[in-house]
Amino acid sequence: MANRSYLYAADSKPTEVDNPQAIRCISEHRWDIPLAHKLMVGYETTITQSMIWSPQIGIAADYAKGAELLAQLLRAVGQGLEDDTEFAECVDKTVAHLDKQRAEFFILETGEMVSVTDDDPVSAVQRLVSHEIPAAVAQAEAAIAGRNDDWLASLRTDWQSHFASFYSDTLYFSFPG
């Protein structure tokens, strides 16, 4: 079994006592927290209680802003991949799924990924929130504004590892209701 990052949507954030009422499955990605997941949790980002694991290693963020940032970046990446039908299908599926699962917050579950190293999982999530996610958002915003062409070119050569996650209504960890 592969370790994964899991992305969900909900209209409230999990607490130490309760998970949100309606949790919608967004995506899971094997062996990494991909760029797409980092961008989707890129605005109004907070560390929150995990819905799966005991420590506070979940990440919550504004759904609408994160989904829009990803859509804008996919359009920019696509400007260099007009003839790549696989990329176009990936974008269509991703955007349709995000539209269908819309909620107030994205909730990124990092537990499997931050536990594969010897680092403290809580510290690893703090690094994600304070450094890695803001850096990814800054790169994407610059690329969308036309100021990061080299980075865009690098995304085009390996777009699958950044954007081709498993998007589904049911993930390995799904919640009743």
Structure notes:
The chain is α+β, with helices and mostly antiparallel strands and 177 residues long. It is 45% helix and 16% strand. The protein is built from seven helices and six strands; from the N terminus they run ββαββααβααααβ. The protein has helices spanning 35-40, 63-78, 85-100, 111-114, 121-144, 149-157, 159-163; strands at 4-10, 24-30, 46-48, 58-62, 105-109, 166-167. The protein has a six-stranded antiparallel sheet. The longest helix has 24 residues, at 121-144. The protein is globular and about 50 Å long. The mean pLDDT is 93.
Strand percent estimate: 15-25%
DSSP E strands, number = 6
Q: Please summarize the sheet with the most strands.
A: 6 strands, antiparallel
* pLDDT averaged over residues: 93
Distinct helical segment count: 7
- Could you name the ranges where pLDDT drops below 50 across 5 or more consecutive residues? none
Q: Rg from C-alpha positions?
A: 15 Å
**Strand/helix succession:** EEHEEHHEHHHHE
Structural class: alpha+beta
- Spatial shape: globular
- Secondary structure: helix percent: 40-55%
**Multimeric organization:** single chain
Tags for this entry?
alpha+beta; single chain; 177 residues; 7 helices; 6 strands; six-stranded antiparallel β-sheet
What is the structure about, briefly put?
It is built from seven helices and six strands; from the N terminus they run E-E-H-E-E-H-H-E-H-H-H-H-E. It is an alpha+beta fold and 177 residues long. The longest helix has 24 residues, at 121-144.
